[in-house]
Amino acid sequence: MLYLLQIVCFVVSPYPMPGYGATEYDVTKEKSVKGKRQGRLVSIKEDYSSEWSDSSGPTIIELKKTSLRGPPSFPDDSSFTDEAHAILKSADIEFSLKYNKLEGKLSLKILQIKNLSLQDVNSVISPYVRARFYRAPKQLFSFGKEYVINNLDKEVQTKMQKASENPVFNESFQLDVDQRDLSLYTLRLHLCDFDRFTRHILLGEVTVIIRKLELPDATEVTYTEKMEQPAEEDLGEICLGMNYLPTAEKLYLTVVRVHGLKAMNRTTNTTDAYVKVVLMHEGRQLKKVKTVIKISDLNPDFDETFAFDVPSQELNNVYFCAAVIHANKDQRQHRLIGRMYLGPSFGTDAHSHWVEMTQNQRKQVTCWHKLHC
C-alpha cells in the first residue's frame, strides 16, 4: 500500500520527490528563473554551474581582424559608428607651473579649457583634465635628442565638469622633484570626456618638456597651449573570448592573455598586472570581477573565465569594460595601464567581436583588442 502511495504521489506531484534521483525542489530557484525570463538583469556570484543545462560543449573560434571586410549586420546597426564618441575640433588649455628650489616641489595648477569646439555641434561632454608626469632615465649624452617618455612618475586628475562647454577647474597639484632632476621631467595634459557609456575618452593632449621652460624660483608662470589630437600610444593588447549559452542565459568572458605591456616598475623593469572586468548596462555596473596578479610579466597568460547572467533580450544592451592594472606594492593606489570596451556600440573590432559571438552561440569567439588610456 505504501509503495502504491509513493507511485501516485510521484505521478501527481509536478515537482520531483527527494530520494528518487532528483534534487529537492527549491522555490527560490524557480522564482529567480522566472525573473530572469522576464528580462531582469541580476548580478550573480562567479560560478560555472546552472540550474539549466546546455549539452553542447564550447567550440573556440578565433576572430581575425583581416577576415571581416566590414561590420556584420546587427540589430540597430544604423546607429553604430566607429567613432561613437565626441571628437575634438579645437581647444586651448590654460595652466600654470611653479618650482620652489628650497622645498624641491613642482606645482601644477589646471585653470581652464577655452575655445572648446567639437566636430559635432550637438555633442555634449563632461570633461576633466588628467596630468601625467614622466621622468626620463638619466643619460650621460643625449646627442640633442628628446628624452623618451617612458617612465610614468605620477598621475593626477581634476574633477569632472558635467555638460560643460568651457570648464573652469582651478585645481592644484604638487610633485616632489629634486632640482638636479627637474630637466628630466615631461608633463602631458590630457583632456578627457566621461561619456554616456561611462567610458574615459581621450579628446586631446598637450606635451610640455620642462627643461625647455624658464621657471623662475618660487614664481608662478601661466601658459596657454593649443590642444592636439591624441597620439596613438602603444599600451599593449588583450585577448578576450566570449561564449553565450542561450538556454542557460549565461554570458562567459575569458581573459586569455595580455601582450606587450609597458614596464611599470622602474626598479625591476617589469609589471605586476591583473585584469579587472566590469559588466555594464546603461552606464550602471552590474558585476565586477578580476583575475589573479601575474608577477613580473610583460606578456601574462591568464586563461580565467567568468560567468554573467544576461537574459537573451538584454544581450544587445550590455557591454564589458576590461582594464589592465599594475598592482603597485609600494603605493596604496594601483595604476591603470590601459583599458578597452567590448560591446555592440563601440569600435569596429569590439563591434565585430560582439556580433560574431551572438551569431555563433555556444561557441567561444576570441579576438585581440588594443588597449587605450
Automatic annotation (TrEMBL):
Keywords: Signal. SUPFAM superfamilies: C2 domain (Calcium/lipid-binding domain, CaLB). It holds the Pfam family C2. Residues 1-21 form the signal peptide. PROSITE patterns: C2. SMART domains: C2 (SM00239). Residues 89-223, 234-369 form the C2 domain. InterPro entries: C2_dom, C2_domain_sf. The keyword Signal applies. This is Synaptotagmin-3.
